[in-house]
Amino acid sequence: MQNLLTNEQLLSDLQEAVDDGWILEQPDEILEFVINLREGEFEQLHDTGEKSVVRVYRNAKGFYLHSTGCTLSDYAEKIFFNLSDYDTGFDATDGFNFEAMEERKVERDKVRADKALTKLQRFTRIENAYVNGVKNIAHPYLTAKGFTPADINIEYSVIKADLFQSGKPLELLIYKLNDDAYQVITPAKINGSNKFIIIREEGAMKGSYAVVGDGVPEFIVEGLADAITANMALGRSVAVGINAGNIRVVAQELPELILIGDNDDAGRLSAKHSGLDAIFCPDHKDVDDFRQDKGITLVKRYLEREVARVEREREPTLGESNSCITLVSAPPGSGKSYSECQNICQRTGLTIYAVHNKKAMGQRDSRVSEIRELCESNSYELPVMRTINDTAHEDTITVQFNRAIDEYCAHENEDKNWVIFITHKALSLLNFENDALAEANLVIDEVPEAYSIHADKMTKQNLQDYLSYFEATAREYTSHYVVSLLELSSNGRTFYYSDENKDDLETKYCWKMIDQVLANRNHSNFLIIEKSTENQMVFCMNRPDENDNGYYLNVGNTPKINKCEMFNSSVFDCFANVRLLSDDVENSIFALLLKNTQGVEFDLQPLPSRHVGGIANRLDRIIGVTDKTFSKHKIEARPDLSNKIAAAVARECDLTESLWLLNNASRENGDATAWLEQEGYDVADLNPMTHGRNDLTRHNVIVMLYSLKPSPVEVALLEHLNISQAQITRWREHNVHMQNAFRGSLRNPGSDSTCTLVLPDKASVEYFLERVGGEWGVAERELVEAKVSYLEDAAVVADFENKKVGRKCSGDEPLTKTEKNTLSRWRKKFPDLNDFANAIGLSLKELVQFKVRQVAERHKAWHDSLVDAISFPDIVDDGGYSV
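Above: the chain's sequence. Below: its structure in token form.
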């Protein structure tokens, strides 16, 4: 095997990982370990002071780096190095002296055992020193920082004792992190550090912290001195997190902490990866450095202002609501709707019942039919029922709804029981401010659409004109403003009700934007506006405040603007009781947005599943299409992939009674179903949004071959509203899988039939197993997990493999460093550079010899020829659903 130490590309890639992951060893040192490791072995790189334990692991294909203190992949882009990606002449058996390695392994195991014993002996010595030391007296470290014992609100010991070398006692300051870990601080540095973590055994420090102050910590810092300073300034408890990797672990347990971070790249990276709200002290390395330079009074003033800012940002975006609604949560098929209909049959008064759409009102097993059947079988008196189902025009459903309310009020029977069925869309359109509804119940069956949000472009002047048409309020955040659009201003009413503005080309666009705001009566509309960094372009907007006639916003000439529309929780105030029924409803985007933006509170009422004892006995198999990530892009980029999957699934199970759930584009293209029909299968295929479909129970194989993951743009927009990508994917995609899993034969708890579920990827399988464990326990999860397998068809596996990292040489002669840099710059302008080079028959080595102007001209001609060849399909309306 060629010497790894001479491979420039490998050394370069490894150097990036070393720098980004804060690894002490250099690339050549790590590669020395790699050369001498056998498959399955690892070598510990370092364990010094406050640094995390980092190891290099060897496997059959190469090697990877791992830290026990943090997730290295969050810091370094590349942590696995496949040796076949590099020109190393790699051979798994070449160049190894296995006999010598066995001897080295025995020696290494002995060294590790000796280290563990030494570690335990040192820990015992420090533990005894902590117990026997003098509590909370002066120590040279504290004195040098300017602290007195009275300043320090944490128990610590000071004692003269041995740390590493016997017979050389030092004056030690010791405080406790947990029962298995202490931090020891010495008066002077030893080998470059005066702070040492002493642990009983490996991993004992992970997730541990000490608290300066009383009670649960509200803030977290890295070092003891920072914690003492923050506690002095704020009078609130502060955790000592020791290092960035450990803070990330603590943050998972205490996500409400505010990080007072070190003002450097490492500190800001720590804030990013921990996900905590963070405060940094300007012009100073850390908060204690700030105190020593400026004094505790200025620190106090600065921290109080910054903490107020963070806490203000944590308040609901659109203001605090007084609403509290009941969330009825249970797995699919648990009888949430059945139970609600039963309650309705046995009570009196008025219930407004919102279902998904008109189809859900009229189908054979609708809630209307369910109430009739319950009353008939239990001899209940049948409620009076009305359906408000014409959504063609707002006036039409408004008239229908108001007429039904008038009829209810005119009904003289004191024990009357009425149910008015509306759609989710009607929730946005109808006016519920009616005294007759003050004692009524609102039931929302399944989760309605939560929001509409999209990016828009305006000039500063356009924005000023637009906002002048509204009474509005604004809230300032670190990087943006949130401007809530309320009623039309007098200027806005004049503009909107002028027919000329509606038809004029120059004003038509603005008129339509206003009309969109007014269209849905029960929605809140607001803008997220990027703040300017120039601090010079300001304008005034109206706001309904007697004491303040204007609000100034700092914006650029063309600010980034996100237009947002979401359900207004004030609708709930019109009713005596509001109940929302759905699976995993507490994690729905609707519930999260109501909580984050309007402060709605929830009363969670979980219902037990009707599948008593679990579902393992009802599942034949769970087949994962891939253990990688499934996406629409994969299917679109590989037109035959869906047919390969169909063929592979057909070899795994009987598809006679299978239901295929596909994205609309896949259905239109005949993906998967084309192959199935060719093979003689008569299968059903549907859009994955199967709300209210209880007529699918004959299917014993449910194939979920779709992706509903959010786009990067949507993720970025929702992050402004404190909704993470993981939360979006959980509800948007994984919960839809859960719903669809119970649409088939699994839905009926009294049946003996079994079914097979085909889920698109590993994350989907893991979510399903998580839900099984949460509902029926760990033992049931293990039984279900035993039935999980992934497609092993070589063609399918190959299509889901990621492209190998590293580029092959172009032609016989390798690219020079200058040529690589040139191509890297060109790729920013021409992302499809490799495809372009292949299309015109040139290697990258040959292409890079041209001037960039020549490349741009030829690339444009090639790109134009591709665009001319594209035909765009018509938009298809698929029964009101779109994915």
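Residues 98-132 form the longest helix (35 residues).
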